[in-house]
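Q: Could you fold this chain for me?
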Amino acid sequence: MVDSALKTIVAHDYASLQQYYAGDASKFVQDAEQAGGSSSSNLGETARNLTDEQKQRVLTACNKLAEFDYSVGSESIDGDTATVNVTFTNYDVGKAVQKLMQSYFTTMLSMAFSGGSESASETAAADQLVSAIENATNDLGEKNVTKDAVIKLQKDQNGEWKLADMTGDEEYSKQLVNGMFGGVKFTSDNVSGYHKEQQAVLRQVL
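A: Sure. Below is the predicted structure, expressed as structure tokens.
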């Protein structure tokens, strides 16, 4: 069952995931994003203002981050609950996020001091965000980051095993996302080499 469920995630087929997931599979990605960490306020606001076409481009680019390889290991059953050890191998997502943030914020900092109308700045910010995401995910290289995680299972009312719902279980969801994506937090503050002083200025002028 775990193997079948993970295959639906790799295929981005969350409708099919529902038959293996105890929670709402349509919110699986949202729960994973929350476990990974929220974006900075400026970046999050820009993302909310994307057009439908830009959102589709971002989705297409980010889907690659979930195309991990995996191997299912040992399991432990305790009544109606169980755990399964899984090893994930993925791209260096941390490197991709670092490249994305550095590219985006460096460009936006330059634009902030170049003047221009607010609407033009918002449009440029959206364009830059989409381009930065596409460039970062197009340059991922080989899958060379390996992480271990524990997947929780629970029986439903029919006695069928399901992946446990991540909602409300912060500790579990974080370690699962850590396994799938290397524990990357999508925040500007975790980008090494990008100084906090620059971030503070950027928050004030944008």
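A (continued): The CA atoms of residues 102 and 141 lie 18 Å apart.
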